[in-house]
Design goal:
- With 273 residues, this protein is mainly α.
- It contains 10 helices and 2 strands, in the order H-E-H-H-H-H-E-H-H-H-H-H.
- It is globular and about 60 Å long.
- The structure holds fe (ii) ion (2 copies).
Length: 273
């Protein structure tokens, strides 16, 4: 099959059920303990509800992508023989992200159902150049997925969680925030271990990888800024529990500086202005 044939695959989820689901539930019992079925959508305008369903579906899709990024990074960490305890910590991350996928998807269901997301399953993450040695393959993914992506998500999710009023999105976001705290600091712990083994050229390569990831995220913020004015509706606030406001974008820009750029620069990873 050509890559293009897969480009429009529908993003859908299912559970195996029975004993498999019971064992999965035992791993993360807090999911079933959340106040599912308590969200009254009647006060929310139909157009606002559609936006909220779309946002939560996209959030589930985003968590799915992050799960793939965590799994790919885990392989590279093993291949470069990173410290056992560091890998052990990262081994939990794919399961965390799977749980986040489920939580976001169930939030969309709570609001009336998921919306259509089409994607190419083979293009969800950008692999590092295959010719790099294992340590740099791991570093290439870690700076992009963890030092930029996950580090940035901590303050943004935390504020989104604080802004959520209804107990259900509060529980969902609270769970995600607790898990992400470990993801967001992980990348810098890896760098602290790897730095003595990296040459100037290696650091430049990692800086370029971080630059690319920063550019992608900056473009996403531009798109939030432009769409928000057209679509955003006050009545969506409760359903969305999402901070797509000027305050969110300001916090995002500040966090990019303090949580991403400064910690990278202080470790000698060069970034473009
Ligand atoms: Fe996540
Ligand atoms: Fe994460």
């Amino acid at each position: 099959m050509e890559v293009s044939d897969r480009a429009g695959e529908l993003f859908e989820l299912e559970l195996f059920g029975d004993g498999i689901e019971r064992r999965y539930r035992k791993l993360r019992p807090e999911v079933e303990g959340m106040p599912w079925g308590t969200f009254d959508t009647r006060p929310i305008r139909e157009t606002a509800l559609v936006i909220a369903r779309k946002q939560w579906t996209l959030a589930a899709f985003q968590e799915h992508r992050t799960g793939i990024a965590c799994a790919a990074t885990l392989r590279a960490l093993m291949e470069c023989r990173a410290p056992l305890d560091l890998i052990g910590l990262a081994a939990r991350f794919p399961l965390d992200e799977l749980v986040h996928v489920e939580l976001c998807a169930r939030m969309a269901m709570e609001l009336g159902g998921g919306t259509e997301v089409r994607h190419d399953p083979e293009q969800l993450i950008l692999d590092p150049p295959p010719e790099l040695p294992p340590l740099l393959r791991a570093g290439h993914m870690i700076v992009r997925f963890f030092c930029v992506g996950e580090a940035l998500s901590i303050p943004l999710l935390h504020s989104t969680w604080k802004a959520a009023r209804h107990p259900l999105p509060r529980a969902v976001l609270g769970r995600i925030v607790r898990d992400e705290a470990a993801h967001g600091t992980f990348g810098f712990a890896f760098l602290d271990w790897a730095l003595p083994m990296l040459s100037e050229d290696d650091r430049t390569l990692l800086g370029e990888a971080a630059d690319r990831a920063i550019r992608v995220i900056s473009r996403q913020w531009d798109s939030i800024r432009s769409k928000r004015s057209a679509e955003y509706d006050e009545s969506v606030g409760d359903a969305l529990g999402w901070m797509q406001t000027d305050a969110y974008l300001e916090l995002a820009a500040r966090s990019m500086q303090s949580r991403v750029r400064e910690p990278l620069l202080s470790r000698g990873i060069p970034l473009s202005a």
